[in-house]
Each structure stands twice: as C-alpha cells, then as structure tokens.
Inverse folding.
C-alpha cells in the first residue's frame, strides 16, 4: 500500500517530483475464504482490517508485488505497485504500518464492500495520517483493499464518525447526472481549467493549488522542450459503497486518464521520457521511453463529500494519482 501522501509525478523530460461473512466464522483478507453473507458487523470488519495490516504491511516492506496482489486489487494495487518501484529505484525499504481506531460504514445484508476511516501509524514516523479505504469481497469470497486515499488534514472533520453511517451503493446515493457532471468537472480541474465551476465542485487547495498546479508546471516544461501534452479520460467509476453522513455522501471516484505527449508544431524530434522522470520510475521503465508520441495511462482516485442539498458543491477530501502504463505511437 502506498502510505505516504501521493506526489504529483507527471513523467516529464525535466524532472517534476510533486512528488459477507457469518458471525460463526473468522473473516480475513488475502485469500482466506469468507463465511456466509449474513452477520457481517464491525467485529468481522475489524478482523479483515487486522489481517490486511499484517499481510499487506509485510508485503510492502518486502517490496513483493505478488504478495501485495493477495491483499489488494485495482485501483489501490496500482498505487502500491508504483510505490514498490519508487522504493526499489531509490534503494529504500518501505516502512510497516498499522490502522488504529478504525470506524466502519457497513452495508446491510449480503455485504460486498465496506468503508473504513482510520488513523494510520507508520513505523519510524512520529506523525500519523487519517485515511479512507474501501474493501471489496472477491468472487472467491475473500476481502481485498480496492481504494485507499489519505485525507487532507483540514478535511478530517468532514469524515465524522463513519461508524454512524450506513454503507449504501454509490449509484443509489449519488444520482447519475451528478456522477457524470462531477467527473467531468474534476477532469477539467486536474488540468487547471480557467473555467472552474465551484458551484459543482468547491475550490480545493489540494486539487486546485497543488495537484492542478503540477499540471501547469508540466505544460510549461513541455512547451520549453517544444512538446505538448493533453489529458483525456477513458472512464470514470464510482466506488461500490458510499456512506451517508449528516454532511452528505462520502464516496470514492476513480478516473482512468491518459496523458499524451507529442512534439509541438514544427518539432520533428521524438518524444523522450528519461528513466529518471517520476512516471518512468513509478512504472519501472529503467531505460526510459522514446517515440513519435508517448502516452502515459494513469489512475486518479478522489474522496468526495457530495451534499444532499441540490445546488451545494461537492468537496474533495483527498486524492491519489499513479501511472499504470506507458505506450508509444
């Protein structure tokens, strides 16, 4: 699991380092079958989380992708694999971690997912973090981490006591029109649009002043190298579970996007992303990439608070970003 706050690594020529289980049977993560679908409560969810902490923490410290895949699935696994590759490149060991004081948002019968907010303690660090995660039940019956986002400190109060919030399907909690509009607005905001609709998504220091600022620097650096970069969205997926709270609905939105780097008009030189660029490090491309154009696929996860009141903007409480693939054309 990628535990430190995600940097905004955008793979540049010039380096940019923005940087359902029965009560009578134990529940675990990482390949251990679950019990029947009924009777899944906070005790069982805590057992899933404890098993995850033990196994995934060891896999992260060992830098073992196969072991991580026993405890995680996409998109969380994409971010963790990027973290393993960064650690390997910098010849460091990722520290162990543990979730403490977890709060769960649980569904009713036949649970296929649940949400958890918790304090994250990292071995060797005095500081702690608050994160928000979703676990999903796989077809074989075990539980895996599917989403993991660190919550910005100023947004922690918005999470509230998750244990008082039932988990419901995101499609039920957030209308289709709102889901589509929010995804479209977030895509525009990640590339520093000058037409931000803050009535739809509130102004966010994390999104607008940090993440999008990285994109602006990215474009400037590309322009200086006589190249252009454009971002397109392939798909947007809302988390299976959402939590209804007094302040609105907490849900996770995953966007799959592609950044295409191409020569600017009049430039016939190939595009080169060197091995030491952040995205190439996260992808394990030790030789870098060269081609007429280069596309970097990436996954971006947003933790959102969507108010129930119509006309009130959604809030970005946390986000993560990781490259998943590089191709040339």
């Amino acid at each position: 699991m990628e535990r430190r706050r995600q940097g905004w690594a955008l793979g540049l020529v010039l380096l940019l380092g923005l940087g359902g289980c029965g009560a009578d049977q134990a529940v675990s993560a990482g390949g251990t079958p679950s019990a029947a679908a009924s009777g899944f409560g906070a005790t069982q969810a805590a057992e899933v989380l404890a098993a995850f902490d033990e196994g995934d923490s060891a896999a992260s410290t060992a830098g073992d992708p196969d072991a991580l895949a026993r405890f995680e699935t996409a998109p969380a696994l994409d971010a963790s694999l990027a973290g393993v590759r960064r650690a390997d490149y910098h010849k460091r060991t990722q520290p162990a971690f543990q979730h403490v004081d977890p709060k769960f948002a649980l569904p009713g019968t036949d649970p296929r997912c649940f949400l958890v907010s918790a304090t994250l303690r990292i071995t060797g660090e005095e500081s702690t973090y608050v994160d928000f995660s979703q676990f999903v039940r796989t077809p074989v019956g075990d539980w895996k981490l599917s989403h993991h986002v660190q919550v910005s400190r100023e947004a922690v109060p918005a999470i509230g006591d998750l244990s008082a919030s039932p988990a419901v399907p995101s499609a039920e909690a957030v209308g289709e029109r709102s889901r589509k509009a929010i995804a479209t607005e977030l895509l525009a905001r990640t590339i520093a649009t000058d037409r931000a609709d803050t009535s739809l998504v509130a102004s966010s220091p994390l999104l607008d002043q940090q993440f999008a600022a990285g994109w602006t620097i990215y474009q400037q650096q590309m322009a200086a190298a006589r190249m252009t970069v454009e971002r397109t969205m392939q798909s947007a997926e809302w988390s299976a579970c959402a939590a209804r709270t007094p302040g609105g609905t907490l849900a996770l939105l995953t966007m799959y996007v592609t950044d295409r780097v191409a020569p600017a008009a009049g430039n016939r030189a190939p595009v080169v992303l060197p091995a030491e660029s952040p995205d190439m490090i996260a992808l394990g491309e030790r030789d870098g990439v060269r081609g007429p154009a280069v596309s970097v696929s990436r996954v971006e996860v947003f933790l959102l608070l969507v108010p129930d009141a119509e006309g009130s903007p959604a809030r970005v409480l946390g986000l993560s970003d990781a490259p998943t693939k590089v191709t040339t054309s």
User: Anything to note?
Assistant: Residues 4-28, 31-37 have pLDDT under 50 and may be disordered.
